[in-house]
Amino acid sequence: MFGILSPTSQQVMKTHVTICPEDDAPPSKVLRTDESPSRRISSLLSEATTSETLPLIDFYVVFMKNKQKMSAFLKQIPTTVGAEHLKRVDKSGRVLLQRVGILSIELLQALEEFGMTENDLQIAKVPSTRPVTRQQFDWAKQYWPTCFHRDKVLEGLLDSSVFTKKDKFEIYSWCKRALHVGSVVVQNGKELACSQITSQLLGHPVMTMVQELAKCPRQLGDYLATDCDVYLRDEPCAMCAMALVHCRSARVFFCKSSVNGVYSQGKWQLHLEPAINHHYRVFQVELVSDERKSSFCGR
C-alpha cells in the first residue's frame, strides 16, 4: 500500500491569500493548521519526569566557620556516594557529608582534625535524585544546591514544541483516520498498512495490522515498523503494546484511553519498561471530535 496518499493530501485544506510585495509575483498560499485549544498532543512520560517535586532524603551536614579551611576539609572527608547531583557546599557554608546513619571512621577523623565533633552535625533534607526539568530544579534548589543540565528534547516533549505546525496538522489528520479504521502505520507521510478489529480471538487492530505490515515490501535493513509512526484509535493493551515493541515502532499515537491500556501514568507504562529491548515514544492525541469516555482495546 505504498501508493496511498496521506490524509493531508486527500483533504481540501483551508488557505488564505498573502499579498506579495512584487506586483508580478503570484499570491502565496499559507497553510492554516486550524489550531484549537481542544486539540492537544501529550507525550506520555514517567511520573518521575513530569512531577513538580523530587523525593527527599536526610543527610548530615556541618557548618564550616573558617572558610579558609574549606578546601582542605573537603579533601579530607569521604566522597558522598550516590549524591553526585548535589553540590558539596551551600551558600551558607554548610558542607554535605553523608546520609543519616552510622558515621564512617574517615568522617569522624576528619571532623576531629578540624576541631569538630558529632555534636556539630546537623540534618538537612536534600533531593535524592537529579532534577530533569527546570521546574524540578527550581523546587530542588530550595533545599540544597543541585546540578542541572537542560534537556531540550525533554522540554520539547513536555510542552509539545517538538512538533511544528505542519507536524501537528499531519498527526491530527492521521489520527482522524485511525479513529475510523482502528490502526494505521505511516512512514515518510505514506500509509503502509491499516487494520480494523476482527472477530478472531486475537483480532485486535494492532495484531491484524502487524500481519498486514508483514506483507508490505520494506527497504533493505528495515524490520516491520522500523522508522514508522503508528496511529491508533485506542490505547493498546499489554499484548498490543508488546507487539509494537517487537515490530520496532518508532512512535505511537493513540486517541482514546483504554480501560486495559498500558501507557498512561498510574498504569504499567510498558513503553518505559527498562527490561524491554526496544523503546518508542508514546503520545496521546486529543481531537475536537473525541468522545471523552474510555474505550477498551480489542472491542
UniProtKB/TrEMBL annotation:
The UniProt entry's GO CC annotations, sorted and at most eight, read:
cytoplasm; nucleus
What GO terms are given for molecular function?
A: tRNA-specific adenosine-34 deaminase activity
Gene Ontology biological process: tRNA processing
The question of whether tRNA-binding is a record keyword is answered with no
Q: Which UniProt keywords apply?
A: tRNA processing
Under the heading Pfam families, the entry gives:
dCMP_cyt_deam_1 (PF00383)
Residue ranges of domain CMP/dCMP-type deaminase in the record: 164-283
Which protein family is named in the record? Belongs to the cytidine and deoxycytidylate deaminase family. ADAT3 subfamily.
* Protein name, as recorded: CMP/dCMP-type deaminase domain-containing protein
